[in-house]
TrEMBL record:
This is Lecithin retinol acyltransferase. The gene is Lrat. Its EC number is 2.3.1.135. The keyword rRNA processing does not apply. The active site is at residue 163. Its main location: cytoplasm.
Length: 232
């Protein structure tokens, strides 16, 4: 088990605020979910079974394991599997409402989607994390089989069991999340110095004044360090 890098009292607050990271922003004025790219949008000829795929998002990165034939296994927060076993409903693209409720209730599924549904229009990096695990990369077939065995409902935590934990276990044999560790270390540094908390709030307020209100970036900058400081 991993040692929690932040106090447990702050863990729940972090998870609630960090759900903003995984929400796909809707186009301005859109009343529903944006359609995913059409099939064939990505060139999958360069992907190999067992590859680790990364899709950079606004703040964090989404990860998956390529299974071949335009299929990607990835861990997604999703409330729907807790209410139904209908695969046709579950297999539909996860909406923002399903995702947010999944984060809040800590329910998720490791699912198989097309590359288009997995990436949702973002750019894809292939095996970019291999440089961190030079001597630990498992065989491509072993990575793919691990991913396939884990497909189905699972518990979820933004901090302790997210999509990065899933792919690093499959490809490297160790469930870790560098982006979570980095974020928590930053939070710990902020907590140690109350002046940094005030500076962070001021920077966030300045961002609102200069750039306008952006919930996915500005609000976490202000509220995460503030509430963590209060919790500490």
């Amino acid at each position: 088990t991993m040692k929690n890098p932040v106090p447990q009292a702050a863990s729940l607050l972090l998870e609630k605020l960090l759900l903003l990271i995984h929400v796909r922003p809707l186009p301005a004025g859109s009343g529903g979910e944006p359609p995913p790219p059409a099939p064939g949008y990505y060139d999958t000829s360069c992907f190999k079974r067992g590859d680790l795929l990364e899709v950079p998002r606004t703040l964090f990165i989404h990860f998956g394991i390529y299974l071949g034939e335009n299929r990607v296994a990835h861990l997604m927060p999703d409330i729907l599997p807790a209410f139904t076993g209908d695969r046709r409903q579950i297999q539909q693209v996860v909406t923002n409402k399903r995702l947010i409720l999944g984060v809040i209730t800590k329910t998720a599924s490791i699912r198989v989607d097309t590359v288009e549904d997995f990436a949702y229009g973002g750019s894809i990096l292939v095996n970019h994390m291999d440089r961190r695990f030079a001597d630990q990369v498992l065989g491509s077939e072993e990575a793919a089989r691990r991913a396939e065995k884990l497909v189905g409902a699972t518990a979820y935590s933004l901090l302790w069991n997210n999509c990065e934990h899933f792919v690093t276990y499959c490809r490297y044999g160790a469930p870790v999340s560098f982006q979570t560790d980095k974020f928590c270390e930053t939070v710990k540094m902020i907590i140690r110095d109350q002046r940094s908390v005030l500076a962070s709030v001021l920077v966030g307020l300045a961002s609102i004044v200069c750039l306008g209100l952006a919930p996915s970036t500005t609000l976490p900058t202000i509220f995460i360090p503030f509430f963590l400081w209060m919790a500490g």
